[in-house]
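User: Fold this; tokens only.

Assistant: Input:
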Amino acid sequence: ERRRDIPLLVEHLLAKYAAELGERGVAPEALDRLVGHDWPGNVRELENVVQRAMVMATTGVILPEHLPIGPVSAAASVAIDATLEEIIERKLIECVRGLREHASANLYDLMIGLVEKPLLRAVLRETGGNQVRAAQILGINRNTLRKKLTEHGIDPDTVEP
């Protein structure tokens, strides 16, 4: 859950086992993969993976292929300190790339719809379901907000704060 801590933990583990296994560095791609992994076994699992990777990395640098973990999750494909705009752009690029073969004359509306629904839910959560306040925050008329909620099938009374 605390992905930002993983680089520091990895650094600590590299130092911890350096005397026994030799000093190692971590390639940025490998670190991204470590950051993106879900770590169901928490720190112990991370420690085991880093230790094993140190053994496998005979060149002194841990590479992604030295990591016995699954593919990189979506969270890892984004830099740790990425802005919301960077995250959205990266996901949109993936989406547009996936649509190359499908000529869609309605891509703009599709993308706006995908972004608009979670935006409406987030603002409603923030306002505790208060539609007047939500409309003010969004800079739209309350009737427009109500229309958009209906279009997206969002019941403002069921949005949890």
